[in-house]
Every structure is written in structure tokens, then in C-alpha cells.
């Protein structure tokens, strides 16, 4: 769908821009995962907009998004949707970003499982983060901000990655003894989405 055909494209371009990526990477989200949808709902981000309202989480920036679905489309919770600029088939437009308090209770309930699904589907990206993360202040290492990783695990992770970078979550768990690292990363992401973190490691603002 072109911008001219996109009913929301002319209304909220800043929201589209915010869904982009920094550091020269992709500017727009290309995929999002469904958290909840309403066949005949009202937008929380665009006044007067009604239709198939989908609440979702973006795959790259991990922000909560409100989408306008194609009329009569149906969605599954956890479904991965293409929301890129061209060639969408179930989504008419990205209406804007949502705060955690704006999403439905159903979406909140689904969030932990969907975030973990995103983490596992993008395992290399998150394992790379663990391989590359550095101190963020003279006294705090980024790894310490992931739930379940205290100074002891942090030191073990740093020593092990100096020998050889981790190749997967399973590799990390086997070599360090850290249980279910994907769940721990997902927990940190949810804290950031809920606004409970003082600084974000994964969720783009």
C-alpha cells in the first residue's frame, strides 16, 4: 500500500518515524506480534479512527503499537504481522505508539509470553548483546540490569565470553549455569515496557 493509499499515513507520520531504528539501521518496524485485537474498536492514538484495532509489539524496537487492520481480517494472539512500508496484506496502517497503561488487560496478560517468543525468535540478536554488552557507568555493568544476573554471574559471563563468544542461549546456560536466560531477557524487556527501568537496554524510546 502506498502512502497515498494509507489512511493513517498523513495523520501520524511522527509515530511512524518513532518506530524506526537508530544507528543507521532500519528506520521502520517491519514486523510486529499481535497482543490483542478488536474487530470494531476505536483508536487510542488517532482521534475518530475506528475499525479493526490491533495492539501489538514491534519486533525491532519492542515498543507497543496500535495498528489498523484491513476490514474483516482476523488475527491470532502471537501472530507475526508484516507492517513494513510496502506490501502489507492484513494491516492498513500503523496508527501510533501505545503506553503500557493504554493497552487492554488481555494484551497485558499476553505480553510475557509474546515477549519471550520475540526473544527466542531473535535469539542471535540477544545473545550478541550478552556477548558485547559493556559497563554503562563506572560501577554498573549492563549485564547486571538483566534480572537474575548479579555480580557473580556477570563475572562468569565476562570470563567465558573472553574465551569464546556464546553461540546460543543453551550455550550460555551450559557454560555459565544461568537458567533460562531467554526468560530473564524477556523479564527485563517487560520492565522497560512498563516504565519500571531507569534506563532501557532493549526497548527503544
TrEMBL record:
Cross-referenced SUPFAM superfamilies: AF1531-like
Chain residue ranges for the region called Disordered: 1-23
Compositional bias per record (Low complexity), positions renumbered to this chain: 1-17
Protein's recorded name: Putative RNA-binding protein
Amino acid at each position: 500500500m502506498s502512502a497515498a493509499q494509507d489512511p493513517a499515513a498523513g495523520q501520524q507520520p511522527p509515530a511512524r518515524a518513532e518506530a524506526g531504528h537508530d544507528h543507521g539501521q532500519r528506520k521502520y518496524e517491519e514486523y510486529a506480534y499481535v497482543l490483542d485485537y478488536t474487530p470494531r474498536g476505536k483508536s487510542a492514538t488517532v482521534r475518530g479512527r475506528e475499525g479493526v484495532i490491533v495492539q501489538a509489539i514491534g519486533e525491532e524496537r519492542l515498543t507497543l503499537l496500535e495498528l489498523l487492520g484491513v476490514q474483516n481480517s482476523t488475527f491470532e494472539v502471537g501472530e507475526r504481522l508484516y507492517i513494513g512500508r510496502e506490501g502489507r496484506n492484513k494491516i492498513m496502517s500503523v496508527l501510533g505508539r501505545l503506553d503500557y497503561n493504554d493497552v487492554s488487560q488481555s494484551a497485558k496478560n499476553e505480553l510475557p509470553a509474546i515477549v519471550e517468543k520475540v526473544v527466542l525468535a531473535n535469539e542471535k540478536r540477544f545473545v550478541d548483546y550478552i556477548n558485547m554488552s559493556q559497563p554503562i557507568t563506572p560501577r554498573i555493568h549492563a549485564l547486571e540490569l538483566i534480572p537474575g544476573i548479579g555480580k557473580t554471574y556477570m563475572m562468569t559471563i565476562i570470563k567465558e565470553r573472553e574465551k569464546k563468544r556464546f553461540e546460543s542461549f543453551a550455550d550460555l546456560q551450559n557454560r555459565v549455569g544461568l537458567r533460562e536466560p531467554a526468560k530473564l531477557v524477556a523479564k527485563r524487556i517487560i520492565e522497560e515496557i512498563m516504565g519500571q527501568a531507569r534506563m532501557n537496554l532493549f526497548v527503544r524510546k
